[in-house]
Amino acid sequence: MAKPWVQIFESRSLQVIFFLAPTTSEERASAVVEQGKGFLYCISVAGVTGERESLPEELPKFIKQARTVTSLPLAVGFGISNEKHVREVSEYADGAIVGSALINVIKQAPPHEIEAEVRRFILKMKQATRKAATPI
């Protein structure tokens, strides 16, 4: 079903990033893995995105299961909002997506400080990963 979209994107040297949720059926997961390129966006929870206090206990198991069906890098999003979350996700996934938290940094910063605040936030998140942080 996504094949026409994938072809359109690929003709423009873009990759379609597919979502994989804990509720994704095996049939759908197979299709996602087969057509996916770049990385898979693993949704940490069923529901809406946004900041959360903690991550689901079953998230590592979900990521481990996803690794059995793909060699693509796995990035976790939905609810990843602070260094603790990034540090935790870095133990079992290849990336952490902090979209809502980044939007909140932008919203809360005075206009003349947005760039500096975004840089600080991203550096803080990068330092929470397993990889060495490099200045932005």
UniProtKB/TrEMBL annotation:
Keywords: Amino-acid biosynthesis, Aromatic amino acid biosynthesis, Lyase, Tryptophan biosynthesis. Tetramer of two alpha and two beta chains. Its EC number is 4.2.1.20. This is tryptophan synthase. GO terms for molecular function: tryptophan synthase activity. The keyword DNA damage does not apply. Pathway: Amino-acid biosynthesis; L-tryptophan biosynthesis; L-tryptophan from chorismate: step 5/5.
